[in-house]
Automatic annotation (TrEMBL):
Residues 556-651 form the Glycosyl-hydrolase 97 C-terminal oligomerisation domain. One of its GO terms (molecular function) is carbohydrate binding. Residues 24-288 form the Glycosyl-hydrolase 97 N-terminal domain. It holds the Pfam family GH97_C. This is Glycoside hydrolase family 97 protein. InterPro entries: Aldolase_TIM, GH, GH-type_carb-bd, GH97_C, GH97_catalytic, GH97_N, Glyco_hydro_b, Glycosyl_hydrolase_97.
């Protein structure tokens, strides 16, 4: 596969000392980057003349005391313009990804480079070292001095009694405060969004995170600074239902790595509300596909039973982790067009993937699923998978498994980041897709390893079983913040739906806050090439028309457009798969009436199928309406969104 590159290097590569400070504009001229190379290296960013990021220091300190970026001697610079197109092997937002940017490369005599890129939708920079042998990095200075005291949307790490502050599942609610009111002691994980009173939003995150710790953020005066987990020197296994390795002692450095390499991009995604949910800047910055032919990567929809605790009814068997139950799930998947079912935690001993629960006859279940054209997928505990990696994957391959989940990493220090790469590569050798739970954000990993098809790193549906955290307002922050960093496994589809007053967290009879339409819309609005249905199949069987509509929704798209958006309030997303458009809308607790224009359609007539909030959805959020009619691109579609509401439209061209 080849991409077309057009390099405009001022007619030829031009090496000369840049003006001080050096400036670089985005292709459309709206964003301007300024880089100072005096005693310190600092960058700043403005949008249409409005300061967004004021001078912010960049440096990297090695264990031997060298400080790359302080009193650095600039040797030469290169400016280039790139006009590129990326063909995505797994089309999450779009099949053809436009990759246009201007780039500034600064080379220093201390044998390191700084690479800056300015896109129409953001700015990024990274270190590149050209040092012999291996190096030890004591720390990296990544500062983001934000102009005009913006409001910060940030997920704070919650302290754990048994672990240090760098252990987290990366699943928290967003706190919303002016920057100067964020406590200095707060550590948050990225992405973080900064919203000034005027001008565009700024999402701070990273890309191409390989063999290096992930970036946390903490307030630093009028901005944020990167914080990196020190290298683990000692660990212990912490017990409980899901044992995991906890760091008990850390080094005074953050990474040991090759002396010649590139480092993760520090990324500022910049745009208005309508720009952020469709952003693929993090994807564009990542290392291209390392796996070669990935035609065996098969996106689709999957069932899961963990959230509802296999609480089936209207079945002639005792529901649980047993063969009869999973045959029922296979039949359900076949009936409504799901590609695979997931056997979540409990199918084996969490500490031994070969110690299968006696009530479960896996060979019999595999044969049954194969006959129905449905695949099996399996949950694993990360510590166990790591210990049994090759024999476990060999068994999954023999079983015909093409998708597994691993869970409870809860760290992003350098060895844990290496774990993701090691597991993705091992799975790829056997043509198995992998989903990470208890995981940090993707940070472009899904481009480098397309079989790492989705991951958690999000407070999603499961929290309805024990908390009130997964509110419609929370759901309306995720596409503007977390989803900017890559696909996320929220696991929508709960069929017990409640108002804020009605909602109760009840294990086994899990309900969601908001309407049925809200749950359905997540399948369209949220990026995840494998979408997991978390509802109760016994309930679903009572509503075949709704489930048939849900079952026909794709999970990859040739094109994505944002029709309307307001951070935390509402989002309307239109996506095209082949000739069919799907429009999903999510709403917060405020009822709204919208009119949708269809001018993104081509000429001709279309069949419109809608699933919208019903007239009583404000009192009984289970209420929805399914309708079908003919339309054309000149029509306007009125849509009522109930409190916590949502809708999905399917628009098919008539033949």
């Amino acid at each position: 596969m080849r991409s077309l590159y057009l390099f405009l290097l001022l007619s030829a590569p031009t090496w000369a000392a840049p003006p001080r400070p050096a400036t670089l504009a985005s292709p459309n001229g709206q964003l301007t980057l300024m880089v100072e190379t005096t005693d310190r290296i600092r960058f700043s960013v403005s949008y249409a003349g409005q300061p967004l990021v004021e001078p912010s220091a960049i440096s990297m300190t090695l264990a031997d005391g060298r400080q790359l970026g302080r009193r650095a001697a600039l040797r030469r610079s290169q400016v280039r313009t790139v006009r590129d197109s990326i063909i995505a092997p797994v089309a999450i937002k779009r099949r053809l990804v436009r990759d246009h940017y201007n780039e500034l490369i600064l080379q220093f005599r201390e044998k390191f480079d700084l690479i800056f890129r300015v896109y129409d939708d953001g700015v990024a920079y990274r270190f590149r070292t050209v040092l012999p042998d291996s190096i030890t990095i004591r720390d990296e200075e990544a500062r983001f001095t934000l102009a005009n005291n913006p409001t910060l949307y940030y997920p704070p790490v919650q302290p754990r009694r048994e672990a240090d502050r760098f252990h987290t599942s990366f699943e928290e609610l967003y706190q919303i405060r002016p920057l100067d009111q964020v406590p200095d002691s707060t550590l948050c994980f990225s992405p973080v969004l900064a919203a000034a009173a005027t001008g565009p939003r700024v999402v701070i995150t990273e890309s191409d995170l390989l063999d290096y710790p992930g970036m946390f953020l903490a307030r630093d005066g009028t901005g944020l600074r990167g914080v990196f987990a020190p290298y683990p020197m000692a660990e212990k296994m912490v017990g409980g239902d899901y044992p995991q390795a906890v760091v008990t002692r850390r080094a005074d450095y953050i990474a040991r790595t090759a002396g010649t390499r590139t480092f993760p991009w520090r990324v500022l995604v910049i745009g208005q509300d309508r720009d952020l949910p469709a952003s693929d800047l993090v994807y564009r910055l990542a290392t291209p596909n390392r796996l070669g032919d990935v035609s065996w990567v098969r996106p689709g929809k999957c069932t899961d039973e963990w959230i509802t605790d296999i609480n089936l009814f209207n079945v002639p068997f005792r529901a649980g982790v047993n063969t009869a139950t999973y045959k029922f799930y296979v039949d359900f998947a076949k009936r409504f067009g799901f590609d695979r079912i997931l056997l979540d935690a409990g199918w084996s001993d969490v500490n031994d993937l070969f110690k299968i629960k006696p009530e479960l006859n896996v060979p019999e279940l595999i044969a049954y699923a194969r006959e129905k054209g449905v695949r099996l997928s399996f949950w694993t505990l990360a510590a166990t998978l790591d210990r049994q990696l090759e024999p476990a994957l060999a068994q999954f391959e023999r079983w015909g498994v093409d998708f597994i989940m691993t869970d409870f990493m809860d760290r992003d220090d350098q060895p844990m980041v290496r774990f993701y790469q090691r597991v993705a590569e091992a799975c790829a050798r056997r043509k198995i897709m992998i989903m990470f739970h208890g995981a940090f954000k993707p940070a472009g990993f899904d481009r480098t390893y397309p079989n790492a098809i989705t991951r958690e790193g999000v407070l999603g549906s499961e929290y309805n079983a024990w908390s009130r955290k997964a509110t419609p307002e929370h759901d309306l922050l995720l596409p503007f913040i977390r989803m900017v960093a890559g696909p996320m496994d929220y696991e929508p589809g709960l069929l017990e739906n409640a108002t804020a007053k009605q909602f109760q967290p009840i294990p086994g009879k899990v309900m969601s806050q908001g309407t049925r339409g809200h749950q359905l819309a997540m399948f369209v609005v949220y990026d995840s090439p494998i979408q997991i249905f978390s509802g109760n199949p016994s309930q679903a069987m009572l509503e075949p028309a709704f489930m048939e509509f849900l079952g026909q929704l794709p999970t990859t798209y040739d094109e994505t457009r944002i029709l309307a958006a307001k951070l935390g309030d509402y989002l309307i997303t239109a996506r095209r798969n082949s000739d069919t458009w799907y429009v999903g809308g999510l709403n917060d607790w405020t009822a709204r009436d919208l009119s949708l224009r269809l001018d993104f359609l081509g000429p001709g007539t279309y069949t419109l199928t809608t699933c919208t909030d019903g007239p009583n959805a404000d009192r009984n959020p289970v209420d929805y309406q399914l309708t079908t009619r003919s339309i054309s691109r000149t029509d306007t579609i009125p849509v009522h969104l109930a409190p916590g509401g949502g809708f999905v439209l399917r628009i098919e061209r008539k033949r």
